[in-house]
Amino acid sequence: MIVLSAELNDYRNYGQTRVEFGGGINVLCGDNAQGKTNLLEAVYLCSVGRSPRTPRDKELIKKGCERGRIKLTQEDRGGSNTVEILLDRVENKRVAINGMPITRMGELMGVVAAVYFSPDEMRIIKDAPGDRRRFMDIALCRMSKAYFYLLGRYNKILAQRNRLLKSGKATDDVLDVWDAQLASEGAKIAKTRRGYVERLSKYAKEAHEFLSDGKESLCLEYEGFEGNDAQEAEKNFAAELKKNRERDRQFCFTSCGVQKDDIAVKVGEVDVRAYGSQGQQRTAALSLKLSEMEMHYAQSGEYPALLLDDVLSELDPCRQRKLIERSKKYQTIITCTHLPAEIESALGEYSLFSVKSGTVTTVDKP
Ligand SMILES: Nc1ncnc2c1ncn2[C@@H]1O[C@H](COP(=O)(O)OP(=O)(O)OP(=O)(O)O)[C@@H](O)[C@H]1O
Ligand SMILES: [Mg+2]
Q1: In angstroms, what is the C-alpha Rg of the chain?
Q2: Helix axes 278-300, 129-143, angle to 10 degrees
Q3: Closest Cα to atom 25 of ligand 1
Q4: Which ligand has the minimum distance to the alpha carbon of residue 53?
Q5: Closest ligand, as measured to the CA of 337
Q6: What percent of the chain has pLDDT over 70?
Q7: Closest protein CA for atom 24 of ligand 1
Q8: Ligand 1 pocket check for 191: Cβ under 6 Å
Q9: Residue range 111-130: average pLDDT?
Q10: Which of 14, 27, 32, 34 to mutate to test the pocket of ligand 1 (most atoms within 8 A of CB)?
Q11: pLDDT, position 340
């Protein structure tokens, strides 16, 4: 899949802009605070329905305006599709695919397939397990609408169980019913995530070795409910809920479940989450993103668009060149404040855009 064009109206610092992207590497070049990240954000918003930078949609509307709009046109094997997002200061945002309004965000998944990396994404490696879970869930939701709805069901049951615990009316009879549902849906999530991390690990190892020029070996492991299949995981989950029942009643909170899952990230024997060097953590985070690209390809036969924000300034020259080399096989949109000569020579064929005060212009290269 490739993104053919993006049209922005009153989005962030953009008034009216239309950008037509090339199918290979697209470089967005400009000084600080000109709108490079805003443009990548807009593309990603059309992919997953939410900004990678803020949960508050109102921030996306240009200051002083009542409404904002993004329209993305993509092309995949099935043809061409548009995704349009209308932002409103008063009402919730509205999303339309090919002009038809959608009622559930799940319908958006997979239309504009994109993988986004920014220095903020380093939290996937460094921060709390929640960020790694979110990483897994976003990737899995994009691959499968069934997973998206499964996760929604699980979170609803969990919220209801927690409400019940708080109400003080959590008798054994009632909890038995909720726990059976939680264990059943949770086990399906655990099984899906375990399978995902196993596949991800293979690709991540290859990507990390490539980016580090063979110097490092990366390994990922799912940390969640044990079980070779969903039934075994369900049994383990149910037993854990039973074991923690008294404590849950005491603290009015569900203390175990897939909402606690994590991914172990190791380079050699080193747990990169806690002990990795900055460079190892950066490379590992990028390797995860590149693995997502490959897994999406393995599943659908098409690569998503790769969105790389501010990534070059974060890497040493060898890893920069390796990343550029790798990016050539995808449609990549990459931002930078300047283009060093050695990077430009590594780019080969590419499209160059200048971003200045919320306007994007195509730069003709000599
Ligand atoms: N809702 C908004 N309305 C108007 N301007 C906004 C809005 N949100 C952000 N901006 C402005 O958009 C400008 C560009 O932001 P952006 O993050 O895209 O810059 P950038 O080109 O990526 O810069 P850097 O190189 O520093 O990362 C900033 O000056 C910011 O204040
Ligand atoms: Mg930026």
Answers
A1: 22
A2: 20
A3: 32
A4: 1
A5: 1
A6: 100
A7: 32
A8: no
A9: 92
A10: 34
A11: 86
Instruction: Note whether 132 and 285 are within 8 A (CB).
Output: no
**Unique residue bearing structure tokens 């959608």:** 102
Q: Is the dihedral of CA 75, 77, 79, 83 positive or negative?
A: negative
Distance separating alpha carbons of residues 127 and 110, to the nearest angstrom: 27
Q: 301: exposed, middle or buried (C-beta count within 10 Å: 0-12, 13-18, 19+)?
A: exposed
**Closest listed residue to residue 87, CA positions, set 70, 67, 64:** 67
The distance from CA 20 to its chain's CA centroid, rounded to whole angstroms, is 23
> Pocket of ligand 1, candidates 11, 37, 58, 360: which has the most ligand atoms within 8 Å of its Cβ, to mutate?
37
Give, as one character, the DSSP assignment of residue 92.
Answer: P
Question: What number is the average pLDDT over the span 67-90?
Answer: 97
C-alpha 74 to ligand 1 mean position (Å): 25
Kindly state if the Cβ of 53 falls inside 6 Å of ligand 1.
no
What is the amino acid identity at position 148? F
Is the minimum distance from the CB of 36 to ligand 1 under 6 angstroms? yes
The answer to whether the pTM exceeds 0.85 is yes
Q: What is the DSSP string of 181-212?
A: HHHHHHHHHHHHHHHHHHHHHHHHHHHHHHHT
In ligand 1, the atom with minimum distance to the C-alpha of 34 is 21
Q: For residues 46 and 26, what is the distance between their CA atoms, to the nearest angstrom? A: 18
Q: Is 366 helix (H, G, I), strand (E, B) or coil?
A: coil
Domains in the chain, CATH or no CATH each: 1-113+302-366 (3.40.50.300), 122-300 (1.20.1050.90)
| pLDDT at residue 279 greater than cutoff 90 | no
Query: Which atom of ligand 1 is nearest to 31's Cα?
Result: 25
Per-residue pLDDT band for 365 (boundaries 50, 70, 90) equals: confident
Ligand 2 center from residue 212 Cα (angstroms): 25
Strands (E), the chain: 2-11, 14-20, 25-29, 67-76, 79-88, 94-97, 100-101, 114-117, 218-223, 262-267, 270-271, 305-308, 331-336, 350-356, 359-363
The amino acid that residue 268 corresponds to is G
C-beta of 63 in contact with ligand 1 (< 6 A): yes
